[in-house]
Amino acid sequence: MNIILSKKALTKYQIIFKHLFHCKYIERQLCSTWLIHQSTKELNLQRAVTSSYLLTQKMIHFAKNLVYYLVYEVLEQKWFKFEEGMANVSSFDDVLKLHDNFLDECLRESLLLDENLLKILSKINRTCLIYSTSIQNITENMRVNKQVPVKFLGNKIFKGFI
Asked: Is the pTM of this model over 0.90?
């Protein structure tokens, strides 16, 4: 087992899943921002914050599609290919080669091996996270200043606007 799951292989798994979890975290933060936007609908501020709503929707769309791509188009497809290849191996060296190819393909198609693409993706992710955090901080400051009571929103108790 130590030969197949070597430090090198474990490092590759960690890189892939750290990237995936970070993208999922950004998606969740943007969804929290969307919930904040939903809580402002009663105030009829649509004209004032329409561009913010639209930007949030576009960022959520990007984040969800990125996570979908990573999970279903890359990891799942490569895993199925890996399983099919495992049915045809004849030696231990074939298993090592197949596993290494699986990890390398996952890294490459997850946009983690192309430095230029990774920089662009990192900037986009960082921008989404900064935007989400900023919106959440602004609305939290508004709530603190106005001492807005807690209201019920769906299945969650949520500090919202009146």
From this structure: no
